[in-house]
């Protein structure tokens, strides 16, 4: 029996064209291309946005040499064939100047996702994104899971996956390892939980 190989639904260039049209036609449409599959990313609600504001303030105070870029599209996965829109990425302030819709991930120190309430949030944020970001070589992946009231810190990417995952419940402190080097007191996250 012949072996089946994974084949993307479309070429990366074709996805980029579809994503541009979708963004123009549907205000706020956010499409991603992970594992060769087009995914629609839910629009953030008010609590989601507030969590990103909270994290942005902490990053600015702790690491004024860096900036938390909300919603920056990046080239992801092995060989940069995927396209992801993290909720935020931590990099220097000019990291994406002149790069268009899908920035080079090399300057990124941390990718951030805050879970949404859509049905595929678990698969996307707990399975697909960690693998894509590890393949990309992003040193730290911070996942704020609103359904579980947990914060997960993924680190030590080996090109296929993150070798270290540290999970804490809301209310505890968690250290974002180098090259980020920030400690988060997650107590305020309880205010934005359902």
CATH topology: tt1808, chain A
Radius of gyration: 16 Å
Structural class of the secondary structure composition? alpha+beta
CATH class: Alpha Beta
Number of helices: 3
Question: Count the strands?
Answer: 12
Helix amount, in percent? Answer: 10-25%
Mean of the pLDDT scores?
A: 87
**Uncertain regions spanning at least 5 consecutive residues:** 1-5
Number of domains: 1
Estimate the global geometry from the Cα principal axes: globular
CATH architecture: Alpha-Beta Complex
Please indicate the percent range of residues in DSSP E strands (runs of 2 or more): 25-35%
Distance between the termini: 50 Å
Strand order of the largest sheet: 3-6-7-8-9-10
Order of helices and strands: HEEHEEEEEHEEEEE
The CATH H-level superfamily is tt1808, chain A
Describe this structure in words.
The structure is a single chain. The protein has 194 residues and is of the alpha+beta class. It has one domain: tt1808, chain A. It is 24% helix and 29% strand. The chain is built from three helices and twelve strands, in the order αββαβββββαβββββ. A six-stranded mixed β-sheet has the order 3-6-7-8-9-10, with helices on both faces. It is globular.
């Amino acid at each position: 029996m012949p072996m089946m190989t994974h084949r993307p639904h479309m070429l990366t260039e074709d996805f980029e064209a579809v994503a541009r049209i979708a963004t123009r036609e549907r205000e706020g449409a956010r499409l991603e291309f992970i594992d060769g599959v087009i995914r629609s990313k839910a629009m953030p609600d008010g609590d989601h946005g507030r969590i990103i504001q909270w994290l942005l303030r902490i990053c600015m105070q702790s690491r004024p040499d860096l900036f938390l870029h909300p919603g920056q599209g990046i080239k992801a996965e092995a060989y940069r064939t995927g396209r992801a829109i993290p909720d935020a990425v931590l990099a220097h302030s000019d990291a994406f100047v002149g790069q268009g819709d899908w920035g080079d991930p090399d300057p990124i120190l941390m990718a951030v996702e805050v879970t949404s309430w859509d049905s595929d949030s678990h698969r996307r944020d707990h399975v697909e994104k960690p693998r894509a970001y590890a393949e990309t070589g992003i040193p730290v992946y911070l996942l704020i899971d609103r359904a579980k009231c947990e914060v997960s810190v993924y680190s030590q990417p080996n090109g296929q996956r993150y070798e270290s995952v540290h999970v804490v419940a809301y209310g505890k402190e968690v250290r974002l390892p180098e090259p980020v080097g920030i400690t988060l007191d997650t107590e305020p996250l309880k205010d934005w939980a359902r």
